[in-house]
Amino acid sequence: MTYDEYNAFCRSLPATTYVVQWNNSHVWKVGGKVFAIGGLGTVDDPAFTFKTSDLNFVFLSEHAGYRPAPYFATRGMKWIQQYESSKETDEALMYYLKESHRIVSLGLTKTKLRELGLNPK
Length: 121
Known about the structure:
Oligomer: single chain
Shape: globular
Number of strands: 6
Number of helices: 4
CATH class: Alpha Beta
């Protein structure tokens, strides 16, 4: 997945905002909270960082092309970085980005969820 494809996918998720920060990284937020970061990889080998469930964190930490996210994981947060991208892994990446969006959304207040038009479940 390229950074352009990544940005287009994240833009398609509900109630997202985009900012460039942290060494020119492509940062996507929902309700003001980060759910995905595209950056710190090269244009030819992009890297994507996202929040995961505890189970997916363990699972992905043991798979080639993924690692506990620098900075986040060392602070006990369940964030993974995909640093090897291929057409075969794009579908999985889209799933994990969507899941990260969902997990981060769950941490928002019911009021914020209503403001954003998200279903507070």
